[in-house]
Automatic annotation (TrEMBL):
Pfam family, one: TPR_DOCK
GO molecular function, one term: guanyl-nucleotide exchange factor activity
GO BP: any one term: small GTPase-mediated signal transduction
GO CC terms, sorted: cytoplasm; plasma membrane
Domain Dedicator of cytokinesis TPR repeats region: 3-159
Name this protein carries in UniProt: DOCK1 protein
Domain of life according to the entry: Eukaryota
Stretches that traverse the bilayer: none
InterPro entries for this protein: DOCK (IPR026791), TPR_DOCK (IPR056372)
Name of the gene: Dock1_0
Species: Chloroceryle aenea (American pygmy kingfisher)
């Protein structure tokens, strides 16, 4: 919970001081996204790997922090405005890794980032080949590694 609070404080500072008025700091924003995804995907938060009793205990005490940080990542992505293009294709893999976590609320809030990435690249280049190449490469790698499930596929297609 303390790490989540620290990450949220980092996000607040980034948004206030390193987004507008020529103060944009690509590396700080990149660090935020990688830190937040690493937090979200850490083994100790993967509730589906625990017994039902332990899962219920964690949920009662802390809630599902994955959904919380996933929504924060999504909000920070949309805060980027015209800077989003600087994170394509570099953030495709980390966002994909995050959306593959088998938690429905997290998936619903973060899968749309992919479509926003495509739109962002399309508006600038009239295509989205950089995004397409990266997502196909990363998705192939993740699926071969045993990640992804039928629910993910169906949700991705329906969205």
């Amino acid at each position: 919970r303390e790490f989540l609070r620290a990450i949220n404080q980092f996000a607040t500072t980034l948004t206030k001081m390193f987004l507008c008025n020529g103060n944009f700091e690509l590396q700080l924003w990149n660090n935020y996204f990688h830190l937040a995804v690493a937090f979200l995907t850490q083994d100790s938060l993967q509730l589906e790997n625990f017994s039902q009793a332990k899962r219920n205990s964690i949920l009662a005490k802390y809630g599902d922090m994955r959904a919380t940080i996933g929504a924060a990542i999504r909000d920070m992505w949309y805060n980027l405005g015209h800077h989003k293009i600087e994170f394509i294709p570099g953030m495709v893999g980390p966002i994909l890794e995050m959306t593959l976590v088998p938690e429905l609320e997290l998936r619903r809030s973060t899968i749309p980032i992919f479509f926003d990435m495509m739109l962002c690249e399309y508006q600038l280049t009239k295509g989205f080949s950089r995004f397409e190449d990266e997502i196909l490469h990363k998705l192939d790698s993740e699926v071969e590694g045993g990640r992804g499930d039928e629910q993910y596929k169906q949700l991705f297609e329906s969205m």
